[in-house]
Fold Peptidase A1 domain-containing protein.
Amino acid sequence: MDQGSGEYFVRIGVGSPPRDQYMVIDSGSDMVWVQCQPCKLCYKQSDPVFDPAKSGSYTGVSCGSSVCDRIENSGCHSGGCRYEVMYGDGSYTKGTLALETLTFGRTVIRNVAMGCGHRNRGMFVGAAGLLGIGGGSMSFVGQLTGQTGGAFGYCLVSRGTDSTGSLVFGREALPVGASWVPLVRNPRAPSFYYVGLKGLGVGGVRIALPDDVFDLTETGDGGVVMDTGTAVTRLPTAAYAAFRDGFKAQTANLPRASGVSIFDTCYDLSGFVSVRVPTVSFYFTEGPVLTLPARNFLMPVDDSGTYCFAFAASPTGLSIIGNIQQEGIQVSFDGANGFVGFGPNVC
């Protein structure tokens, strides 16, 4: 959907009878939530705001329940379990925890622990809420572990196309022929899917970087996270600078344009029908190399032919592989065995 700030949406029926809502697919957080009536503070969404009073399956969660105990920042109000979640960009949702029925196509899943957000603020424009599919026990994937074995996969369709991508839960989501990379666990951030990244390449040439630039430290800092809820890939400043300079050196023949927003390396391609650009690659631990097509790293930022190198420096040591870089690639998570796979299919 051409709304929001670069997120991918999935259509889900909430409640009984199901009310269709657009929800952001977020592999970087756990909470499943939608905006709810009565709204004390709500942003604009494309569907009518969900009204729990009109759902026959909505059940509030009591303060003393084990589900409430599993929520970070939980509280109590009139005997009901309260939740609040703050996101890295300053967005937040606050409200009541409930058990509710969710409908995906013809599949009905009952008693999903879901936040009913009465105070919500942030960059979720258009969406009714978030489908958190992170690595924690309260995420949609965590709640379904008994049925799906922690397995799911997605293919995020490229921006600007009318086709749709896919989001699949269960062992059948794990394809034969994928390139598998071990997931790295960080006890201090169980929601995040960390991967071992060893290097970056431009035009088949590996960029010289410090050996430990992408390492996850014993104190839980640094590391590399796969996140569908972040658009642009972020890299530690030193790694980004070397990577960007390597790309600029191999695109010196292309006319430059001034930077746009968080992008500092942009090109004026208005006079071109097609251009040849070097490939960009991620080198993972244990061997796999993910080489990206040009649309996954050169991004149009206006209608007049300006394209930007779609990476940015991270304000912290944490690296994030965002959804622009994941576009069009089948990505599969095998949570039970601790692997993420790339390919073999595209969308």
